[in-house]
Amino acid sequence: AQAGNYLRPTTLSGLLQARAAHPQAQVVAGTTDVGLWINKMHKRFAQVLDVTAAQELKRVETYPHHIAIGAAVSLHQAYAALVSERPPLKTFAQRFAGLPVRNSGTLGGNVANGSPIGDSMPLLIALDASVVLMRWDAKRKQITHRELRLEDLYTGYRTNVMKPDELLCWIKVPRPAETEFLRVYKISKRFDDDISAVCLAIRMTLADGKVGTISIGAGGVAATPVRARQTEATLRGQVWSADTVMAAVAALRAEFQPISDMRASAAYRQTVLGNLLQRFWLESQGLQAINLESVSMEALA
Question: Could you tell me the CATH number of the domain that includes residue 260?
């Protein structure tokens, strides 16, 4: 964008008014993705709307039943907030890109971008997160909003339900239950700083040995980040046993029809989905040394 076409409002109302006036402007935050469009694909934008100066969106707010992460909060800060609520996420958070990207990119940008292989969305889907979309109502001269479950944001490959004058402003994440068991698995060719072939997040609570709450988010297996609703239905209310898990493994492998690409074949992705659910079962039984990164050199000595 040329000088004068770069908009960076410092308040939420100013940001939404700018969006209403310039619905075709390219929205940016950390530009970890848009920046590549410019220097690799040589794209140019007539106008750019930067959300990172809106003070209201640079906060993480804690409430009795949820935390609210502003769209301008960096990935580093956002994941720090998530890890403080759910310590098992620490290793997964450290595998999200590299430190420079985590410091400049935002969770709001990652979610709004909607890449099917983005790592944040499967996790947030499993956590039953919702997004708050806001717009400026010129007639009433006030901000209006609507809230929807994160998995309902997407309509197709990198497309979503947001109207031209709407912005994704907040991500709301329910606080954890005391009995919650949560795991997130990222499968990539390289362990560190690589793009996922498959990402699977599973959150479960048990009641009297039966599956109570169950939420499963998946990435890399469809055109959008998705929720494994059929697999959840297979598990919900069932005795948490090896037989139940194997039935769910079959359901999970059948639920999605992934594509083959440079990162993995469709058959590999389907196989890995089921394998990760089996791993979740083993870890829920207290087994730890079930993959290479969980085996210490001392244990092998």
Answer: 3.30.390.50
Q: Taking Cα atoms as reference points, which of 133, 135, 144 lies closest to residue 171?
A: 133
Going from the C-alpha of 148 to that of each of 90, 117, 160, 176, 289, the distances in angstroms are 27, 21, 12, 19, 39
pLDDT tens per residue, range 31-40: 988 888 889 8
Sign, CA torsion 104/110/116/117: positive
192 in the same domain as 165: no
Asked whether residue 247 is domain-assigned, the answer is yes
The pLDDT of residue 38: 87
- Let me know if 54 is exposed, middle or buried by CB neighbors in 10 A (0-12, 13-18, 19+): buried
126 and 202 Cβ atoms separated by less than 8 Å: yes
Helical pair 242-255 and 266-284, crossing angle rounded to 10 deg: 150
Positions of the chain with pLDDT under 50: 1-3
What pLDDT was estimated at residue 293? 66
CA distances for 21 relative to 18, 86, 151, angstroms = 5, 40, 28
Q: Is residue 160 included in any domain, yes or no?
A: yes
Q: Nearest CA to 75 among 34, 107, 51, 33?
A: 107
pLDDT on residue 66: 99
**What DSSP element (H or E) covers 199?**
strand 198-207
Domain enclosing residue 189, as ranges = 181-284
pLDDT at 33: 86
What pLDDT shows up at residue 192?
Answer: 81
